[in-house]
């Protein structure tokens, strides 16, 4: 089933306002196949991530959803098919190149710098747009200091906004699990991304924290960011996403609105029980 | 000319054996220990001490060399590896093994002296034996026997198969109930014993010299990297290639640029085939 | 920078500025100058080892290149010492580039061995090219013209170079460049994800450390006034390395205190001098096992043990309007 099939038109004024907002090009994987030796992880899968939209990617273990995320973010090259952002072909683009194009991600196991503070970890996201190089910085030229202050201020605001204001000066290795996850999102947002891809962000979170995560995802979407949500927690996915793609053993089994996917018999059979 | 080949094979055998020791330790811990070259050094020094210093018969000297090597292997694990592997910082084992290597080298230097001291004759033989001198063929024989022995160990014995299982997937091995900690310690003791034996066999070639450790750590590593991390056949090839290259270069160009040539070989191989001649692509030492 | 570190730095700065006045004798002044010369190299090396996490154990080779370059340029070729220092720095920077290009792509152990091998190669080269370098006999090294031709004058020159290196590296350390290097050290995946060009960043840091080693080597050589291949033994590489690790990675002040203490200690406690490298190895091992982040953290770790501060668990509570505003402001 082609992932690019027209989805059901989003209903409601809010949705209409969103689709009218200046979005920019979508991030697309078109007919992508990825094999590892003899194993076919992805089999002709297409997915489209639009700015200002939350796209959920679900599937059982081994369905290829993590492979897809890793491929979109630049850690794998597809064996066939293409990855595009507007006119640009991304299959061979490095992780760093994708970062400059505004593609951010979080990791299944949070990756933070343990010896630095929460604020400094969040500030890392500002790297991609900083212009001051090694020499500028070493010589103490004003640009380096100015950029640093701007990044610091923005990261502070993001951290307060995401709910980590109480921990800004704390060393990152002293954070609790949920705090680590939110810090990774703040760092991603510091990159001023067009797209942010969350790798099982609800893992290990309490119900309250998942609520907050949902609010944050919606806030990101309303601000025009395209969010890819790879998740096991299907209730959460259906609550928060505008569109959902369900994978099984590397193939797309259903793509559409949360309601469509949730009630699809194949999805129910493979994934939701029974 | 034949002399060049024979002496090249002999020093090459020493490098190859050191590379084999690296492999044994790496297989279970995924660590390349800086102390690897110091084990043969200890085998040679303590072997010489036992025979020349204490007047013990050659087989007790051999036992001493092997025992000290095994002890040092065990010590490396206890002090430098065990606590460090538990932490997530990947660089730490490099620092800890470097620290232990430095300490053992200095300690031996302070006790044994900094001059290379002669290693006793093991088998009664004239010093005019030329090419047939045991200082050449003892290391070569040992390297080959070691490589064959290890292959048999890995394929025929229970313990050996556990080593292999652990090196391929330590997580799965642990999930199956294998005590990976004990296997690792055993591998370090085995590596130590083999290293001690190597040093003992090559003692007449290298003399009992405290500074041998760092040289062997480096050259044994070059042999390992050239031949391919994880491959015992590669270790032999890499070692012999390095040894022959050294002696041939000395013969033709003088002995001044030995290290340069060795590193040159390493760099060329790594640039063309980063995993070494016989290495597998997914064996990545961190 | 927190007040504690600021205070300590100010104390050091004042002590350094006034040192010739209160130093006991010529020998202590010489020692201080030596520390400053070491720091020129170690300050640069700190970015490589302490920040980007590349464990180079062969920097004595670069020190040697800088020293011999200076001795040859200023001595044999009669170039003005100031130009000779610049030449030594440039040559060493180039050497750093040549060494770094193939080896910085290698995994940690390979890289360490490559740097050690290169330091041995430099040693071989120095011995072999006797015509140029004086071979085993060594070279006399000229001093600097007035006002740097007195011990106090030369001390101020080297101290000034040390101050410059400190300032340059401190700038890098506290800005985004420094954070990028730390990311390379602690989580390469994170560094890539935020756009850090990992290889290029490592190479730039390594090149900088090369230039610093060249300048440090030149000043070191001039201080020693005579250099031989034996001056540049492998133990010196260990010493540089250990100063940084013990002082603490990710810090400028830590390794500086490390150099001061580790240079002065064998002088003050003579049994330690005899132990030499054994002592450095032991210190390194203790630090790695007990306080891997360096002695600087030792005090904090102890303080935590004695006075455990229970961190109250504060629930994460987003401020959505603030978040929305922050996101929009960045677009």
**Discrete helix count of chain B:** 11
- SSE run of chain B: HHHHHHHHHHH
- Here the CATH topology of chain C equals ABC transporter involved in vitamin B12 uptake, BtuC
Strand content of chain C: under 5%
Distinct helical segment count of chain C: 16
Kindly report the spatial arrangement of strands forming the biggest sheet of chain C.
1-2
Structurally, how many domains make up the residues of chain B?
1
Assigned CATH architecture of chain C: Orthogonal Bundle
Mean pLDDT of chain C, to the nearest integer, reads 89
In angstroms, what separates the terminal alpha carbons of chain B?
Answer: 41 Å
Number of strands of chain B: 0
* Morphology call of chain B: globular
Helix content of chain B: over 70%
Largest interface: A-C, 68 and 51 residues
- The tally of strands of chain C reads 2
Uncertain runs of chain C are: none
**Percent of sequence in beta strands of chain B:** under 5%
Write up what this structure looks like.
The complex is a heterotrimer of chains A (274), B (286) and C (331). Chain A is an alpha/beta fold and 274 residues long. Chain A is built from 11 helices and 10 strands. Chain A has helices spanning 13-20, 65-73, 95-100, 118-123, 134-138, 142-162, 177-190, 207-222, 234-240, 258-263, 265-272, and strands spanning 27-36, 39-49, 54-58, 80-85, 88-89, 103-105, 195-199, 226-230, 243-248, 251-256. In chain A, strands 6-7-8-3-9-10 form a 6-stranded mixed β-sheet, sandwiched between helices. The longest helix of chain A has 21 residues, at 142-162. Helix content of chain B is 75%, strand content 0%. The longest helix of chain B has 29 residues, at 58-86. Chain B is globular, with a radius of gyration of 18 Å. Chain B starts with a helix and ends in a 14-residue tail after the last helix. Chain C is mostly helical and 331 residues long. Chain C is built from 16 helices and 2 strands. Chain C has helices spanning 3-22, 26-51, 59-76, 81-103, 108-128, 130-133, 151-174, 176-186, 188-193, 198-224, 234-247, 253-268, 270-275, 277-290, 295-306, 320-330; strands at residues 139-140, 226-227. Chain C is globular. Chains B and C meet through helix 3, helix 4, helix 9 and helix 11 of B and helix 5, helix 11 and helix 14 of C.
């Amino acid at each position: 089933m082609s992932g690019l099939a027209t989805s059901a038109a989003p209903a409601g004024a809010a949705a209409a306002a969103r689709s009218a907002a200046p979005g920019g090009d979508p991030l697309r994987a078109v007919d992508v196949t990825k094999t590892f030796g003899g194993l076919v992880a992805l089999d002709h899968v297409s997915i489209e991530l639009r700015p200002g939209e939350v796209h959920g990617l679900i599937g059982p273990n081994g369905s290829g959803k993590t492979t897809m995320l890793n491929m979109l973010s630049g850690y794998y090259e597809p064996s066939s098919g293409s990855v595009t952002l507007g006119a640009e072909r991304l299959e061979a683009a490095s992780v760093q190149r994708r970062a400059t194009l505004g593609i951010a991600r979080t990791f299944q196991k949070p990756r933070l710098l343990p010896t630095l503070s929460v604020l400094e970890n969040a500030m890392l996201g500002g790297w991609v747009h900083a212009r001051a190089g090694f020499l500028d910085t070493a010589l103490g030229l004003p640009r380096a200091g100015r950029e640093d202050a701007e990044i610091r201020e923005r990261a502070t605001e993001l951290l307060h906004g995401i709910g980590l204001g109480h921990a800004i000066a704390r060393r990152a290795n002293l954070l609790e699990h949920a705090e680590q996850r939110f810090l990774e999102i703040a760092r991603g947002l510091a990159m001023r991304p067009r797209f942010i891809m969350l790798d099982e962000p609800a893992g290990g979170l309490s119900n309250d924290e998942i609520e907050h995560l949902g609010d944050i995802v919606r806030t990101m979407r309303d601000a025009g960011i395209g969010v890819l949500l790879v998740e096991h927690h299907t209730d959460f996915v259906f609550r928060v996403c505008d569109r959902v793609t369900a994978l099984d053993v590397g193939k797309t089994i259903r793509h559409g609105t949360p309601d469509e996917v949730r009630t699809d018999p194949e999805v129910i059979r493979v994934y939701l029980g029974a | 000319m034949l002399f060049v080949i024979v002496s090249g094979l002999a020093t090459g055998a020493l490098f190859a054996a050191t590379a084999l020791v690296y492999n044994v330790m790496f297989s279970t811990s995924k660590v390349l220990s800086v102390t690897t070259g110091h084990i043969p050094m200890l085998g040679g020094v303590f072997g010489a001490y036992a025979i020349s210093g204490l007047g013990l018969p050659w087989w007790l000297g051999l036992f001493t060399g092997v025992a000290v090597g095994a002890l040092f292997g065990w010590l490396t694990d206890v002090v430098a590896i065990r606590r460090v592997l538990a932490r997530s910082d990947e660089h730490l084992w490099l620092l800890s093994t470097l620290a232990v290597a430095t300490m053992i080298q200095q300690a031996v230097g302070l006790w044994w002296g900094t001059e290379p001291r002669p290693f006793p004759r093991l088998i009664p033989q004239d010093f005019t034996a030329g090419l047939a001198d045991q200082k050449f063929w003892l290391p070569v024989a040992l390297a080959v026997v070691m490589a064959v022995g290890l292959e048999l160990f890995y394929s025929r014995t229970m313990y050996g198969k556990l080593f292999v299982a652990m090196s391929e997937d330590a997580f799965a091995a642990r999930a199956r109930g294998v005590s990976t900690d004990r296997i690792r310690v055993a591998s370090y003791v085995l590596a130590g014993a083999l290293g001690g034996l190597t040093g003992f066999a090559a003692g007449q070639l290298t003399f009992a010299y405290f500074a041998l450790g760092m040289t062997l750590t480096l050259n044994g590593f070059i042999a390992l990297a050239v031949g391919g991390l994880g491959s015992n056949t590669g270790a032999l090839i890499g070692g012999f290639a390095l040894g022959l290259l050294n002696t041939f270069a000395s013969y033709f160009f003088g002995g001044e640029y030995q290290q340069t040539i060795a590193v040159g070989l390493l760099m060329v191989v790594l640039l063309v085939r980063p995993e070494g001649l016989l290495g597998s692509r997914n064996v990545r030492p961190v | 920078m927190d007040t504690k570190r600021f205070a300590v730095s100010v104390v050091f700065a004042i002590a350094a500025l006034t040192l010739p006045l209160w130093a006991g004798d010529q020998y202590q002044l010489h020692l201080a100058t030596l520390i400053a010369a070491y720091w020129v190299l170690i300050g640069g090396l700190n970015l490589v080892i302490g920040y980007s996490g590349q464990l180079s154990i062969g920097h004595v080779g670069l020190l040697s290149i800088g020293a011999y370059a200076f001795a040859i340029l200023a001595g044999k070729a009669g170039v003005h010492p100031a130009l000779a220092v610049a030449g030594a720095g440039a040559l060493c920077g180039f050497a750093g580039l040549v060494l770094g290009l193939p080896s910085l792509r290698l995994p940690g152990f390979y890289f360490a061995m490559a740097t050690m091998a290169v330091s041995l190669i430099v040693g071989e080269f120095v011995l072999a090219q006797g015509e140029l370098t004086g071979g085993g006999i060594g070279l006399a090294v000229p001093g600097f013209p007035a006002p740097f031709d007195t011990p106090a004058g030369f001390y101020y020159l080297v101290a000034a170079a040390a101050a410059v290196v400190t300032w340059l590296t401190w700038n890098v350390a506290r800005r985004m460049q420094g954070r990028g290097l730390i990311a390379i050290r602690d989580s390469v995946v994170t560094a890539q994800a935020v756009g850090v060009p990992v290889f290029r960043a490592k190479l730039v840091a390594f090149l900088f450390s090369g230039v610093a080693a060249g300048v440090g080597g030149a000043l070191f050589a001039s201080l020693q006034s005579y250099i031989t291949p034996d001056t540049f033994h492998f133990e010196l590489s260990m010493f540089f390395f250990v100063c940084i690790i013990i002082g603490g990675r990710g810090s400028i002040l830590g390794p500086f205190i490390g150099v001061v203490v580790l240079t002065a200690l064998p002088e003050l406690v003579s049994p330690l001098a005899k132990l030499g490298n054994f002592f450095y190895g032991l210190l390194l091992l203790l630090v790695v096992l007990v306080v891997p982040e360096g002695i600087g953290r030792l005090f904090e770790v102890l303080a935590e043990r004695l006075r455990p501060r229970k961190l109250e668990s504060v629930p994460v509570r987003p401020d959505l309007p603030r978040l929305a505003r922050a996101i929009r402001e960045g677009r």
